[in-house]
Design a protein that fits this description.
The protein folds into five domains: 3-75, no CATH class; 88-183, Tyrosine recombinase, N-terminal domain (DNA polymerase, domain 1, Orthogonal Bundle), CATH 1.10.150.130; 192-350, Intergrase catalytic core (hpI Integrase, Chain A, Orthogonal Bundle); 357-390; 397-440, no CATH class. 48% of the residues lie in helices and 8% in strands. The chain is built from 19 helices and eight strands. The protein has a three-stranded antiparallel sheet with strand order 1-2-3, covered by helices on one side. α4 (88-97) runs antiparallel to α5 (104-121), α8 runs antiparallel to α9 (207-217) and α14 (314-327) runs antiparallel to α15 (332-339). The radius of gyration is 37 Å and the shape is extended.
Length: 440
């Protein structure tokens, strides 16, 4: 057991680690503080000796322990050495270098986020960034960027500091709870109709560009990453399917997926196959397997040349348009399996309400109203539901009501008692196997 030695100007706790005497100078402390320190040392020695996890109480004690005392424990191998928080730039660079599980495009976004953080905070110590400063950073981003982009930048910053927290470099993530916008921007989500995409296809300079556009719009592939990696060995003509390699979902254990060769896509694949050089590996040779090649600028020019109104995020909206189409015919889980996302992501970022949805809903509603109206009155048209709804009740107009072939005339200004008197002698049920019932 650890012992306490009281000296003239200080108190020491003495413990034995592997039969070696270890002294912890506490300075001037109360007896209760020294006893608590000694008890924690005894508990820590017991847990290490028995290969037990460090208890919560001891962990909290170690977290607040003076660096000099902690270093004594570290030198004895009782605790892991403390890693001192470095500068913001050094830490983020190390974090990015360790992310070998993400695509180069994602790494580029992480580097851009790092540059913005350094520009705002400077190359300060990690623990110098406070929660209030993180709020100020979020508000500044909201002034310079679109709300969805600002929110994503804050999420990346929170990702950096969350990693630092888990490494024990900081006590708290200053970006926890920072929210400056929303993760999606519905105004930038556009449904690309088949008429529009056909005009774009007609203006494509060659068969490779036609195939790229078709794979994005009718295959639902991510561009350029998934289209660039498509090989002829991935096309299974006999089963009308093809395999898509996806760098984005690879880190989630889904390196590839199987997609049908949709009828709209088949002509473009056939054309590419007939034009491909013998022994060609890539389905789109101009990409050569480069999953990071920029195709958006060229596609924007093709769209402009087609004489149609351009739309934001050209390839992304082609992909989301395909998912919206497929959802009308197949269950969500099937479509998500083909396009390589989840129902949550699909509803949040992909599915779009189109003009056809409004038109179909209005027509279906009119047809239903017409059918119901026709049952009540064969002479009523399909779109007179509103007129029927505005008609006054028959009885209030003094018209006759018929029950079992008997006409009952109700005077226009008849009182309630007069109506009751007329109905008392009416037959409530139709005549059949049961005898008629009189009265109410």
């Amino acid at each position: 057991m650890a012992s306490i030695e009281n000296r003239r100007k200080s108190t020491r706790v003495v413990a034995y680690v592997n039969k070696d005497k270890v002294v912890f100078p506490l300075g001037r402390v109360t007896k209760k503080t020294a006893e608590r320190f000694a008890n924690n040392i005894d508990t820590l020695l017991h847990e290490r000796r028995c290969n037990l996890p460090v208890s919560r109480e001891v962990s909290l004690w170690l977290a607040d322990l003076d660096d000099a005392l902690y270093e004594i424990l570290s030198d004895q191998g009782l605790v892991e050495p403390r890693v001192k928080a470095g500068t913001l730039s050094t830490f983020i660079d190390g974090y990015i270098d360790g992310r070998s599980d993400v695509t180069e495009r994602r790494l580029g976004k992480l580097r851009n986020a790092k540059d913005r953080l350094i520009a705002f905070f400077g190359d300060v110590k990690l623990d110098a960034v406070t929660a209030g400063a993180a709020d100020d950073y979020g508000r500044l981003l909201l002034k310079k960027l679109a709300p969805a982009t600002a929110q994503k930048e804050c999420q990346i910053a929170a990702q950096f500091f969350r990693h630092a927290y888990r490494k024990g470099l900081i006590d708290k993530n200053p970006f926890e709870g920072v929210s400056v916008g929303k993760a999606t921007n519905d105004e930038r989500r556009v449904f690309v109709t088949r008429e529009v995409i056909q005009r774009v296809l007609d203006q494509c300079p060659d068969w490779q560009w036609r195939l790229v556009v078709a794979l994005a719009r009718y295959g639902g592939l991510r561009c350029p990453s998934e289209i660039a990696l498509l090989e002829w060995s991935d096309i299974h003509w006999d089963t009308e399917r093809f395999t898509v390699s996806s760098p984005k979902t690879k880190r989630y254990g889904k390196a590839s997926r199987i997609v049908p060769i949709f009828p709209e896509l088949r002509p473009f694949l056939d054309e590419a196959f007939t034009r491909a050089d013998e022994g060609e590996k890539w389905v789109v040779p101009m990409l050569g397997g480069d999953a990071n090649k920029n195709l958006g600028t060229r596609l924007t020019k093709i769209i402009r040349r087609a004489g149609v109104e351009g739309w934001p995020k050209p390839f992304q909206n082609c992909r989301s348009s395909r998912q919206t189409e497929l959802e009308q015919k197949f269950p969500t889980y099937v479509v998500c399996s083909w396009l390589g996302n989840t129902p949550t992501i699909a509803h949040k970022h992909y599915l779009t309400v189109t003009e056809d949805h409004f038109t179909d809903a209005a027509n279906d509603g009119a047809n239903d109203a017409g059918k119901n109206a026709a049952k009540a009155d064969p002479g009523v048209g399909a779109k007179t539901g509103d007129k029927l709804g505005m008609q006054t009740p028959v009885s209030s107009r003094g018209e006759s009501q018929t029950k079992n072939g008997t006409t009952i005339l109700v005077p226009e200004n008849a009182s309630f008692s007069d109506v009751v008197a007329l109905l008392e002698n009416a037959l409530i049920a139709e005549e059949g196997l049961e005898p008629p019932t009189r009265g109410l």
